[in-house]
């Protein structure tokens, strides 16, 4: 790790401050969340707590980024 | 599919089953789309029609797995020869089994292809994280008093925030040994959650619950000592 500052460390230690769902629920809801995002709907309002989880969980965040990128590239596969 | 010690689909997918072809939850457009209906119809058919649909599904999943491998390829210079292709194929194979086994769990809340993609992406991502940490030591017994020196915090930064740092160290010291081990490994040392789950013989969901509890306790400790923890932090590795 390369000399992170205090803020960076605190961010990682404390995670998101809002209510969040867990990894299991995140996986269960991720496809709907992404389709809502791609369709231009308010995914955060429809699935509260998922965005906070993505902020706190690097693995789920990576998988969200990949699914969003893939669906955006192949919207009607 | 079972990904040992990771966020296996067994761990993360537990929606109730529904009648075949019945949309019980609104998709973004409010209805099960035509393409998704056709996927379900063909995969529930018998004979050559089903075989062809399964073949198309595998091709779809392989494309998703290759997409994930390609996205991560620049950060995985140690992958050799055919390894990326092999990882993608294994991920697609296992994702196919997962999708077929859970076909009745598809509720029509998204497009079928989006739902299917996420299984392939998960399988590929977990494999790549484990491959990246293959042979690397996972630090599990780090003591709180050398926490900040271990992450390379310079003396100036340490002096600037000495009260906060002291409080963080105290708060971390007050966690249970398991919470402390998980928090330090995931949030300080950057161990991928799938890798840590593997080493601790647990799963992603259970580990994240421990991380969440540790963060909650640490935040409460800081708040009780007058620190403002209401800022919405974004975890970033």
How is this structure best described in words?
The complex is a heterodimer of chains A (77) and B (237). Chain A has one domain (20-73). Chain A has 5 helices and no strands. Chain A has helices at 6-14, 23-38, 43-46, 50-56, 58-73. Chain B folds into 2 domains: 9-132, no CATH class; 144-224, Orthogonal Bundle (Arc Repressor Mutant, subunit A), CATH 1.10.10.10. Chain B has helices at 9-12, 34-43, 48-72, 83-101, 112-132, 147-150, 155-160, 162-173, 177-188, 193-199, 204-224. In chain B, helix 4 packs across helix 5 (112-132). Chain B is elongated and about 70 Å long. Classes of the chains: A mainly alpha (77), B mainly alpha (237). The interface between A and B is large, with 50 and 69 residues.
Keywords:
heterodimer; A: 77 residues; mainly alpha; 68% helix; B: 237 residues; Arc Repressor Mutant, subunit A; 2 domains; 11 helices; elongated
User: Distance between termini of chain B?
Assistant: 28 Å
Low confidence ranges of chain B? 1-26, 232-237
How many domains is the backbone of chain B divided into? 2
The tally of helices of chain A reads 5
Q: Low-confidence stretches of chain A at least 5 residues in length (pLDDT < 50)?
A: none
Give the DSSP E fraction of chain B (strand runs of 2 or more residues): under 5%
Helix content of chain A: 55-70%
Biggest interface: A-B, 50 and 69 residues
- Strand count, sense and closure of the main sheet of chain B? none
Tell me the count of domains of chain A: 1
Q: How would the global form of chain A be characterised?
A: globular
**H/E topology pattern of chain B:** HHHHHHHHHHH
Q: How many individual β-strands of chain A?
A: 0
Per DSSP, the total helix count of chain B is 11
Structural class estimated from helices and strands of chain B: mainly alpha
Largest sheet: number of strands, sense, barrel closure of chain A: none
